[in-house]
Amino acid sequence: MSSKMENLEDLYEDLLKDLYSAEKQEVKALPKMAEGAVSPDLQKAFEEHLKQTTHHVERIEDIFAGLGETPRGKMCVGMEGLIEEENEILQEDAEPIVTDAGLIAVAQKVEHYEIASYGTARAWAEKLGYDDAAHLLQETLDEETMENEKLTQIAESHVNMEAR
């Protein structure tokens, strides 16, 4: 990709690189989140999402392989900031269940960031005629949406009430 943004193709590849960086950062953060959570269902959700996130990384690599490009070379500063928030929550002197509520909140910020980004990437892939990539991006978008719903369910079923 050229360093200058000249068209939708350039924006699309740049967004995919951003997502690749975001997912790689999340792969490193999720084990710490699982370890820091006290609710067994939240620990399990983070562990399962780690497995899913490694597939998200592979999907982006597959998309770039189809473009004859590499996904490397960009740091997702949005995810970097969100992961810093996760680290702050883990370092707070808080009741463990309150930490869980905080971890859910920041994990949902991550999911919303990814949902917005994957939705845009999918729309651009469709516009550019990359039907296979659009399908892969939709799969990831669906999984991120389900993860967000799972976090809401955990929060509403017990964590928020116990943290109160």
Secondary-structure element series: HHHHH
CATH topology: Ferritin
The biggest beta sheet is recorded as: none
Uncertain spans, ≥5 residues at pLDDT below 50?
none
What quaternary form is this? single chain
Structural class: mainly alpha
How much is the average pLDDT? 96
The N- and C-terminal alpha carbons lie at a distance of 50 Å
Total of domains: 1
Could you estimate the helical fraction of the residues in percent?
Answer: over 70%
Shape: elongated
CATH class: Mainly Alpha
**Helical segment count:** 5
* Number of β-strand runs: 0
* Annotated CATH homologous superfamily: Ferritin, core subunit, four-helix bundle
CATH architecture: Up-down Bundle
Secondary structure elements and pairings:
Elements: H1 8-36, H2 40-67, H3 77-91, H4 96-128, H5 131-163
Features:
164 residues, mainly alpha, Ferritin, 5 helices, 0% strand, elongated
Describe this structure in words.
Helices cover 84% and strands 0% of the residues. The chain has helices at 8-36, 40-67, 77-91, 96-128, 131-163. The protein has a single domain, classed as Ferritin (Up-down Bundle), CATH 1.20.1260.10. The protein is elongated, with a radius of gyration of 17 Å. The chain has 164 residues and is mainly α. The protein is built from five helices and no strands. The model has no long low-confidence stretch (mean pLDDT 96).
